[in-house]
Specification:
This protein is 3% helix and 44% strand. The strands form 8 sheets. The chain has a 14-stranded mixed sheet with strand order 10-12-15-19-23-26-29-32-35-38-41-44-45-46, covered by helices on one side. Strands 9-11-14-18-22-25-28-31-34-37-40-43 form a 12-stranded parallel sheet, with helices on one face. Strands 13-16-20-24-27-30-33-36-39-42 form a 10-stranded parallel sheet. The chain has 1 helix and 48 strands. The radius of gyration is 27 Å and the shape is elongated. By secondary structure, it is mainly beta. It starts with a strand and ends with a strand.
Length: 426
């Protein structure tokens, strides 16, 4: 027997739907399910359909299986369904934090209840989910939650609907620290808030591998996620980092081979993304209004790939600032920033840039051996290599070129090599 709970809401406004009518069916059918109001040794049958309470709160108990829940009335204009709800399938352990006493009223300390659910899920011999059901405020308060070496999934309601907020500025919100590497932690559809802390993180981890963050939001913290010592091979997908994080996502020392895809870095107070490790892939993300740098690569940031990202105009001083070696920056697009698009600091050597499409492509290069190839901007200029620029003009513009070319390129066209001159334009 397992418990299901949620809030009936009016879809147009997301407001609660008080006294909505609730029908529970076996999944994919119109057969009414057998449901109960409690989980006693002899459970109490619950009428089906039944009515949500005055706040729109819905809960019932049912046997292991899959169910559809149909909602109508209570201000709901068009009936809708929560489809294919899974209760207690054999390969999955399901641990609802409210069953452990969590309140989720944005005031009560839910740390002990949530930690108990995490501990039981970690001790379970099946792959387990710690579930945070929605509440009226959609905010559970906690501090210092500790994950252990088990493949546990922490999950909120769909599409970032359930929040966990730091209770006090005394520890990280959630942390995963262990003497040996552990794997398989997943976070999905959760929001994290750390009370504007400049000391603690929403999630802090060392020696973690193969973690996944999916559709999560991080705000008001030192770092949204901090992968510190020897954290590797994790994925951050479709997440939002912003609203007063000092740094959105920090890949620290030994944070190697991570994938950051489809995320939004916005209004972080120092930088969007900090990269200290190597072999990380940063692709298809959006950056806007991060105060210092959109991406900062320090001296230990090596062999990272930054491709297909969008850097929007705003208050960001620098798009990418790099002090590491052998990084690839290509296929990105960007609008005007208040400073340089790319800075290679001292020690930022042997990086490859291009082709990219920036409105401006001012580059400050204090490193050595950096190659800038195929940078496009709004003036229709193409930078072929560091220190050389080719202007693509209208027909007849060739007469303005110097008599002697600066050099030559050899281009292979369908197996035939062609020698093409290029010119330096002062």
């Amino acid at each position: 027997m397992n418990r299901y709970s949620n809030y009936a809401r009016i879809l147009a406004t997301a407001a609660p739907a008080p006294l909505a009518t609730v029908n529970v069916y076996l999944a994919g059918t119109l057969t009414s399910a057998t449901i109960y109001s409690d989980n006693l040794a002899t459970p109490t049958p619950l009428a089906n359909p039944f009515t949500a309470d005055a706040n729109g709160f819905v809960y019932f108990y049912a046997a292991d299986g899959r169910y559809d829940v149909r909602l109508s009335g209570g201000g709901i204009v068009t009936a809708y369904t929560w489809g294919d709800i899974v209760l207690g399938i054999p390969e999955l352990g399901w641990f609802n934090v409210q069953d452990y006493g969590a309140i989720g009223d944005d005031a009560t300390d839910d740390s002990a209840a949530i930690q108990a659910a995490i501990d039981d899920a970690s001790a379970n011999d099946r792959r387990s989910v710690v579930y945070f059901p929605p509440t009226v405020t959609n905010q559970y308060r906690a501090v210092g939650l500790q994950l252990t070496n088990r493949p546990v999934k922490l999950m909120g309601s769909a599409n970032r609907g359930t929040g966990i907020k730091l209770l006090t500025n005394t520890d990280h919100l959630i942390k995963a620290e262990n003497a040996s590497e552990f794997t398989g932690i997943t976070f999905q559809d959760l929001t994290f808030h750390a009370l504007d802390s400049t000391t603690y993180d929403c999630f802090y981890a060392t020696r973690i591998a193969l973690a996944s963050f999916i559709r999560c939001t991080f705000s008001h913290c030192r770092n949204g996620i901090f992968f510190d010592t020897d954290a590797r091979m994790s994925s951050v997908i479709d997440c939002i980092f912003g609203s007063s994080c000092v740094t959105g996502l920090r890949l620290g020392s030994g944070a190697n081979y991570h994938a950051v895809m489809g995320c939004w870095f916005d209004e972080n107070t120092t930088r969007g993304l900090y990269v200290n490790g190597f072999g990380n892939t940063i692709v298809g993300n959006r950056f806007a209004d991060n105060v210092g740098q959109d991406i900062y690569i320090d001296a230990a940031g090596l062999r990272n790939t930054i491709v297909g990202n969008a850097f929007e105009s705003g208050s960001t001083a620098v798009t990418i600032e790099c002090y590491g070696d052998n990084n690839i920056i290509s296929g990105n697009s960007g609008a005007t920033h208040s400073g340089n698009e790319i800075i290679f600091g001292a020690g930022g050597d042997n990086n490859i840039v291009g082709p990219n499409n920036f409105v401006t492509w001012t580059i400050a290069d204090s490193g050595s051996g950096n190659r800038v190839i195929g940078m496009y901007n709004a003036s229709n200029n193409v930078r072929i290599d560091s220190g050389t620029q080719l202007t693509v003009g209208a027909a007849g513009a060739a007469s303005a070129l110097p008599a002697q070319p600066t050099g030559y390129m050899v281009i292979d066209i369908s197996g035939t090599q062609r020698v093409v001159p290029f010119y330096a334009i002062s």
